[in-house]
Amino acid sequence: MSRKSKTRVTLVTGGAGFIGSHLVAQLLSRGECVTVIDNLSTGRLSNLDDLPRDNLTIINAKVGQAINNLDPAQFHSIYHLAAAVGVRLVVEDPIHTIHTNVLETSAILEFASSASTPILIASTSEVYGKSTKTPFNEKDDVTYGPPSQTRFAYACSKSIDEHLALAHNREHDLPVVIARFFNIVGPRQVGQYGMVLPRFVSAALGDKKIEVYGDGRQTRCFCDVRDVVKLLPTLLDNPKCLGEVFNIGNDEQIEIGELAKLVCKTLSSQSEIAYIPYDVAFGPDFDDLKNRQPDLSHLQNATGFRATTPLTQTINDLAKQIKCKRSSAESLA
Ligand SMILES: NC(=O)c1ccc[n+]([C@@H]2O[C@H](COP(=O)([O-])OP(=O)(O)OC[C@H]3O[C@@H](n4cnc5c(N)ncnc54)[C@H](O)[C@@H]3O)[C@@H](O)[C@H]2O)c1
Questions:
Q1: Number of structural domains, the chain?
Q2: What is the mean pLDDT of residues 233-251?
Q3: Ligand 1 nearest atom to the CA of residue 104, by list position
Q4: b/e per residue 142-163 (b: at least 16 CB within 10 A)
Q5: Cis peptide bond upstream of 277, omega within 30
Q6: 142 is in which domain, residue-wise?
Q7: What is the pLDDT of residues 178-189, one digit of tens each?
Q8: How far is the CA of 122 from the centre of ligand 1 (A)?
């Protein structure tokens, strides 16, 4: 199939992951043919179970390996979401994090460049590092802790991805959009790599202790994944957005201690909330950010985007999906 075909053909790396699987569903619903590359390191094939297979191809491999057998000119667009993610994974396995995030992104950018295929690169609010400014604007300076603090390996690796993508845009005219995600949440997100909302919801469903790291006064802004995946194709399809970096998320802040209480209230849970010092949770060199709020003006000017799904609905939908997964695991046991 060549790019001349009427049907849009799209490549999604990390398509069996949390955001990726929702994006694949969105693209298929737009009538696109989608190829997923995913090595299933943190993603799961079951995330794609409910999707029609006619226009979906799944390649279970690392990005760098899989693209050797693909023609970049066949794709109308590429979404590069594959990455080593999650605070716990990053702190425990920094070599894997750096290799995956830098080398795989470099490979997919070369691939896209060779046929000028438009590409969206998933980045993160972590690139703002330990800046205390709020809200974060795309043009802000960034400040990182020393390399002895392992958690900054993720921020630095994603920052290099942004530099590389923008360099391909400038030097090769590659159509690139950089999406800096701020705490995207929703059904199918898992807590085992340190993601806060699924950890809290899982604990609350079993009336188990909810562990809040630090004093719980740190704030984050949560945005439902179903809002985000509707936005991503409009960014890549809009010529004004090419070569640009966008904060993506919701700008409503909530303290993490308050989030734990909201989860308990929403799910009528009896869970106790426990506050665990950072050094106990992550080791002595861990440094967390106090606030992380996006300035969304650049995104809103370009697209008019506003998150619409209330956090309580996200909590309820995530709880429903976790319960469903637990009961199907029990019936298989
Ligand atoms: N969820 C968030 O709040 C959030 C916030 C900031 C940035 N992001 C970024 O969004 C993207 C998607 O994150 P997510 O939350 O869906 O996490 P996820 O772990 O569910 O998705 C990542 C996917 O990439 C796959 N993968 C990892 N290494 C790979 C490799 N070498 N080759 C092929 N596939 C590989 C994993 O198996 C997984 O399916 C990532 O780039 C992440 O850095 C997410």
A1: 1
A2: 97
A3: 31
A4: eebeeeeebbbbbbbbbbbbbe
A5: no
A6: 9-188+223-251+292-308
A7: 999 999 999 999
A8: 8
